[in-house]
UniProtKB/TrEMBL annotation:
Signal peptide: none annotated. Residues 80-327 form the NodB homology domain. PANTHER family: POLY-BETA-1,6-N-ACETYL-D-GLUCOSAMINE N-DEACETYLASE, PTHR34216. This is Peptidoglycan/xylan/chitin deacetylase (PgdA/CDA1 family). PROSITE patterns: NODB (PS51677). It holds the Pfam family Polysacc_deac_1. InterPro entries: NODB_dom (IPR002509), Polysacch_Deacetylase (IPR051398).
Length: 327
């Protein structure tokens, strides 16, 4: 966004999100790439993220999530308030996003699934990196209901990544692990071991003065698919690990996958509250209001390619005030 446009954008944003309306847009990111990846078209590269952050710095009042959640509850959000979040704990959050946060002086919350630190690889990245490396030809995926699939060009690989991710996301965790391991064997490949942060990078993020580290469970299970005792362990052990690692108690939590009633239930929101967190976010698409459950705050993922489109999306989201929440 050019400098001359910033006052105009700020005026429109503050007119859409004025003081007293208590509407909080919370942005959800995962990875940021050095260069665009044709297999991951919805993942921003560093240039695109810089444009979005520049727009945020010029037109919005970006707040720390736990502070914004408190202000929202108390009805005292400033005009144009917004929050930035990243999920999972990717290394590029440290290497690429943190320098941009510093450049534009923007706070953010990074939700870390602690079991994948120091060389781990999440199942969705296993799918992406394996399909990327598959030889041209046919692969039998009948085991997960996808039948025989031809793998050839970029569009076929991109399509397969989406379908395969959806097909195995809700498998029982051990079966999902076994399937991913078999997929790697059939591809004759090894997975990268540097996608996620290590302990040092998490500490550096926490010590930056801009990033709050939030809870995201240990192994990123679909909480609705595991028993209550395991869900509590995942939440509590993740909290304790992050507290030991950073010297700070995590204040906010993000539900893995995060769809209300499908991926987590109201009982899991109660578990998060009982574990001492102050707020939690879902992936229900919408803008949070003072009527929202502070342990089920909605978010949305920006996919716009330009600063103008990004700001326009932020403005449109002001009408999305009634997202779903688990009951």
């Amino acid at each position: 966004m050019v400098a001359i446009a910033r006052p105009i954008a700020r005026w429109f944003v503050q007119a859409r999100y004025p003081t007293g309306t208590n509407m909080l847009p919370i942005l959800m990111y995962h990875r940021v790439l050095r260069e665009p990846d044709p297999l991951q078209p919805d993942v921003p590269d560093v240039r695109q993220l810089a444009e979005q952050f520049r727009a945020l710095a010029g037109a919005f009042k970006v707040l720390r999530l736990h502070e914004a959640a408190e202000m929202l509850r108390e009805g005292r959000l400033p005009a144009g308030a917004a929050c930035i979040t990243f999920d999972d704990g990717y290394r590029d959050n440290h290497d690429l996003a943190l320098p941009l946060l510093r450049e534009y002086r923007l706070p953010a919350t990074v939700f870390v699934a602690s079991g994948y630190l120091n060389g781990g690889c999440m199942f969705n990245d296993t799918v992406v990196e394996t399909v990327r490396r598959l030889d041209h030809g046919t692969i039998d995926l009948s085991e997960v209901g996808l039948g025989q699939r031809l793998v050839s060009d970029i569009p076929s690989r991109r399509s397969l990544i989406g379908e395969l991710t959806r097909a195995i996301k809700y498998l029982e965790p051990q079966r999902r692990i076994e399937f991913c391991a078999d997929l790697c064997r059939r591809a004759g490949t090894t997975l990268p071991n540097d996608l996620m942060m290590d302990d040092h990078q998490v500490r550096a993020m926490a010590d930056s003065g801009l990033v709050d580290i939030g809870g995201h469970t240990v192994t990123h299970p679909i909480l609705a698919k595991v028993d209550a005792d395991q869900a509590r362990r995942e939440i509590a052990e993740n909290r304790d690990r992050l507290q030991t690692l950073t010297g700070r108690t995590p204040l906010c939590f993000a539900y893995p996958n995060g769809k209300p009633d499908l991926d987590y239930a109201a009982v899991h929101a109660d578990m998060v509250r009982e574990a001492g967190f102050e707020a939690a976010v879902s992936t229900a698409v919408g803008v949070a209001t003072d009527q929202a459950d502070p342990f089920q705050l909605p978010r949305f993922m920006p996919r716009e390619r330009s600063a103008a489109q990004f700001v326009a999306r932020m403005m449109r989201m002001a009408t999305h005030r009634h997202p779903q929440f688990a009951r």
